[in-house]
Amino acid sequence: MATINNFEDLEIWQEARRMYQKVLVLLNNTALEKNLKFKNQISEAAGSVMDNIAEGFERDSRLEFINFLSYSKGSAGETRSQLYRGFDYGYWDDKTLNEMNAEYKSLASHIANFIKYLNSSNVKGQKFKDR
Fold first, then answer.
1. Exposure string for 53-78, b = 16+ CB within 10 A, e = fewer
2. Does domain 10-121 fall into CATH 1.20.1440.60?
3. Distance from CA of residue 41 to its chain's centroid?
4. Which of 61, 76, 64, 60 is closest to 111 using CA atoms?
5. What is the pLDDT of residues 53-68, one digit of tens each?
6. 8 A C-beta contact, residue 79 and residue 40
7. Which of the residues 11, 42, 57, 62 has the least number of beta carbons within 10 Å of its own beta carbon?
8. Cα–Cα distance between 31 and 33 in angstroms, integer?
9. Rg of the chain over CA atoms, in angstroms?
10. What whole-number distance in Å separates Cα of residue 14 and Cα of residue 26?
11. Is the pTM of this model over 0.85?
C-alpha cells in the first residue's frame, strides 16, 4: 500500500465526506425547522465520522489512529440510529432510510477493514519513528 500523507487522500475519509454531504441535502430538504435539536444531532454525528478519521490520522500514531477510527465507526452507527429517528418523525420515507443506512453500513465496514489492516501493520507512526 502506498504511503498516504494527507487524510484527504484516504478513501474512507472521502466516503465519509460524501455521506455527510448526503445528510446535509437530506436535512436541507425536509421540514426540520421545528426540530433544530434533532437536526444538529444528526449533522454532528455525520460530521463526526469524517472528523475522527482526520483527527486520528493527524496524531501520527498508528494506535491513536486506530482508536479514532473506532470513534468514527461508532459515529457511523450513531448516524444510522439518527436516520431511524428521522424516519420515525416522518421527515423521510423508508426508501431514503434504507438507502442511507446501507451506505453507512458499507462505510462502517470499510472503516473496520482499515482498522484490521492497521492492526496487522508493524508501523508505529511518525510520532514514534525515532523511539
1. bbbbbeeebbebbbebbebbbbbbeb
2. yes
3. 14
4. 76
5. 999 999 989 999 999 9
6. no
7. 11
8. 6
9. 16
10. 19
11. yes
